[in-house]
Write a structure and sequence with these properties.
It comes from Mycolicibacterium hodleri. Residues 25-35 have a biased composition (Basic residues). InterPro entries: DUF1989, UAAP2. This is DUF1989 domain-containing protein. Residues 62-227 form the DUF1989 domain. The chain has a 7-stranded antiparallel beta sheet with strand order 1-2-11-4-9-7-6. It is mostly beta strands. The chain has 3 helices and 11 strands; from the N terminus they run βββββαββααββββ. The chain has one domain. It has helices spanning 106-113, 152-159, 169-177, and strands at residues 39-40, 56-63, 68-73, 78-83, 90-96, 123-125, 131-138, 191-193, 216-222, 226-232, 248-254.
Length: 259
């Protein structure tokens, strides 16, 4: 079992400044309606200098704290995830857009690359072994795919009955997945971008302070057309979000031949 993360400070403030860590569910229920309008940062232009891999801008949206997000990223396009305030865990599910039964597998990805840490060069594979996306740029160097996703049930078990009203990433995935015809049986292993989950010698997983900082980015190239589901983690009971969930930015670019 994963060991308990550092408890939330009594005053609720974010500890340690910009490089402090993160936490699991929100203090109050904050569901994202399926038809809730997105928050565009700006209208598409010729290109963007914020994306880790430059190219023609396809999409540029901000995901509110605790909210869910999804988009189909076309083969060859690059999704840059920007940790705007630093130390914000971004839980992520990947599916083939053509066949959602083909979905990301943590075990296949780890076995093929021979390591548990995701970073530049990691190929994110489906349970079939097919490549879904490849990490082509990373300013943090450590991302997790072992820690799973928080939920109302896991929060209650770990942190007590007072957290029962707090929704988690699993609830976000169910709400956002319903927009694409996905249900509970379609939820698979996930990736936790910007989350730091060290493994002890005895195999126990830790939830500790993150390594990211304001403006840090990770870039993923789609190897096929990929449906990306994101939960901007609402956790407030452990350090995975520095006890203070914050917005992130999603940018999709289409590199030119010279890129």
């Amino acid at each position: 079992m994963a060991r308990r993360g550092r408890p939330r400070p009594p005053d609720g403030r974010r500890p340690g400044g910009a490089l402090a860590s993160r936490a699991p569910a929100s203090r109050r229920q904050h569901r994202r309606r399926p038809d809730r309008p997105r928050s565009p940062v700006n209208a598409p232009t010729a290109q963007t200098d914020t994306a880790l891999v430059p190219g023609d801008l396809v999409l540029d949206e901000q995901v509110d704290a605790r909210a869910a997000w999804s988009a189909v990223v076309a083969a060859g396009d690059v999704l840059t995830i920007v940790d705007l305030a630093g130390n914000q865990a971004v839980d992520c599910l990947l599916y083939s857009a053509a066949d959602t039964s083909v979905r990301y597998s943590a075990s296949e990805t780890i076995a093929r690359q021979g390591g548990i840490v995701l970073t530049t060069g990691s190929v994110l594979r489906a349970d079939t072994g097919a490549a879904l996306m490849t990490v082509v740029g990373d300013e943090v160097g450590v991302h997790d795919t072992l820690g799973g996703a928080c939920s109302k049930e896991s929060n209650t078990l770990r942190y007590g009955q007072h957290t029962r009203a707090q929704h988690g990433c699993m609830e976000n995935f169910l709400l956002e997945g319903s927009r694409h015809g996905l249900g509970a049986k379609d939820l698979a292993s996930n990736i936790n971008w910007f989350m730091n989950v060290p493994v002890d010698p005895d195999g126990a997983l830790g939830i500790v302070d993150g390594l990211s900082a304001p403006g840090k980015r990770v870039a993923l190239r789609a190897d096929i057309d990929v449906l990306v589901l994101v939960s901007n983690c609402p956790q407030v009971n452990n350090p995975c979000n520095a006890f203070d969930p914050t917005p992130v930015r999603m940018i999709v670019t289409r590199p030119g031949e010279a890129a």
